[in-house]
Amino acid sequence: MSLKNLNKYNDWAPLLLRLALGAVFIVHGAQKLFGGITGTTGFFDSVGIPLAGVFAVVVALVEFLGGIALVLGVLTRYASLLLAINMLVALLVVHLKNGFFVSNSGFEFVLVLLAGSLALLIRGPGKIAIQKE
Fold first, then answer.
1. pTM across the whole model
2. pLDDT (0 to 100) of residue 133
3. What torsion do the CA atoms of 50, 51, 57, 58 make, to the nearest 10 degrees?
4. Residue among 89, 84, 71 at smallest CA distance from 122
5. 84 near 121, Cβ under 8 Å?
6. For the segment 9-45, what is each residue's pLDDT rounded down to a tens digit?
7. pLDDT > 80? residue 5
8. Could you give the CA distance from residue 8 to residue 19 in angstroms, rounded to a whole number?
9. Comparing C-alpha atoms, which of 68, 60, 62 is closest to residue 19?
10. Residue 113: φ, ψ to 5°
11. Half-sphere exposure in the Cβ direction for 61 (13 Å, CA)
12. Are 133 and 124 in contact, with CB atoms under 8 Å apart?
């Protein structure tokens, strides 16, 4: 079997990426929004983020609404841009100093979310989306 046969499924690749990333961002955003924004605010304050309360709400909304946008395939590039910025800040401010491995709060998971967001920013939603390319 040749792997070239998989080319006929190219349109499914962005959908799979959107669904996986979207689900992760929805859950993490919901955790922040509905699980108590005060915990996120306290954490942001502890790592020196100014206006921690404001940015906690902004990050929670970007993750939750951005995740929904990815799953539906609407405003995909805009959502991906905001999510990529969010992950870049998380990587640089919180996770980079902890090394690579997620078991030590490292940046490996955030790096994957950043890369996926950038891939969708560049590629767009694909053909299987509510809002086509």
1. 0.94
2. 67
3. -60
4. 84
5. yes
6. 999 999 999 999 999 999 999 999 999 899 999 999 9
7. yes
8. 20
9. 68
10. -65, -40
11. 6
12. yes
